[in-house]
Design a protein that fits this description.
141 residues; mainly beta; Leucine-rich repeat, LRR (right-handed beta-alpha superhelix); five-stranded parallel beta sheet
Length: 141
């Protein structure tokens, strides 16, 4: 459903798609807090987040911090939250999702240091944020 003119919040009926592994809602006009943070409203059965392998929510108007609810996504391989209005510290716990291989958080308002655990990722895009500090040594090897 990418590259449409979808607006507002996701309907709660998305929770009825029990076998959903791939969700691409990129480049729409969705807004508000990132829907995963509203797991009971958007994904009422909280276990559904565990099924995601690829989650693309880039190019929308989501705001607020990246919800820690994503840390329960056991099979998440690719996550793209770029080109939103996400804020807060860059979450270190994203680097602890063992299945995660690709992470795109570019063009947001995230701040802080680059977590060392991000070094194990195969693809990482953090451009155009408010990051500080040194580049972790593991990236330099």
């Amino acid at each position: 459903m990418s590259n449409n003119m979808l607006e507002g919040l996701l309907p709660s009926s998305f929770a009825d798609m029990k076998n959903l592994e791939w969700l691409d809602l990129s480049y729409n006009k969705l807004e508000g807090e990132l829907p995963i943070g509203l797991a009971r409203e958007i994904f009422p059965v909280s276990d559904n987040i565990n099924n995601f392998e690829n989650l693309y929510l880039d190019g929308n108007n989501f705001s607020g911090p990246i919800p820690q609810k994503l840390s329960t996504a056991l099979f998440l391989s690719s996550l793209d939250l770029s080109e939103n209005n996400l804020s807060g510290n860059i979450p270190a716990w994203l680097g602890n999702i063992s299945s995660l291989r690709s992470l795109a958080l570019s063009r947001n308002h995230l701040k802080g240091h680059i977590p060392p655990d991000y070094c194990r990722l195969e693809a990482l895009d953090l451009c155009e944020n408010n990051l500080v500090g040194v580049i972790p040594c593991a990236f330099q090897n």
